[in-house]
């Protein structure tokens, strides 16, 4: 706008710059929306399940932080383990120990979306590891685990493209 005397006059001098800026932002949004999420929930650092040892849930019965000393690259993510034994078990059968739905929140996948996880909110059902967003969501998940697994199985992996 340009002030001329007592009137405000509109000019179009800035409009092309504004429109190109808006267009640029729109294109960025389209690009970011069109990218599928990775098959493993690995965050910005590329480390699966926030660096927790997936084998420990089965062998120790609790969440245990892994270490950089014992790592394995699988499905585009870096997996950390608390011991050489756990690393060896995982490399021999990663599908057995890796959490379902790539380590995304199992309840969220049942609802047709993805969400991050709290490594302390977990359950093992029929020999498979399921992680949840937090303890509140885990309580909700516990109300109908079989039903939520059926829904999540139908939604996986198409939720990665949403």
Structure, briefly:
The chain has about 160 residues and is α+β, with helices and mostly antiparallel strands. The chain contains seven helices and six strands; from the N terminus they run E-E-H-H-E-E-H-H-H-E-E-H-H.
Describe the structure.
- This protein is an alpha+beta fold.
- It has two domains: 38-98, no CATH class; 100-162, no CATH class.
- Helices cover 38% and strands 20% of the residues.
- It contains seven helices and six strands, in the order E-E-H-H-E-E-H-H-H-E-E-H-H.
- The protein has helices spanning 15-34, 56-59, 84-92, 94-97, 106-110, 135-142, 145-155, and strands spanning 2-4, 7-9, 67-74, 77-81, 118-125, 128-132.
- A two-stranded antiparallel sheet has the order 1-2.
- Strand 5 (118-125) and strand 6 (128-132) form a beta hairpin.
- The radius of gyration is 23 Å and the shape is globular.
- The model is unreliable at 1-11 and 17-34 (pLDDT under 50).
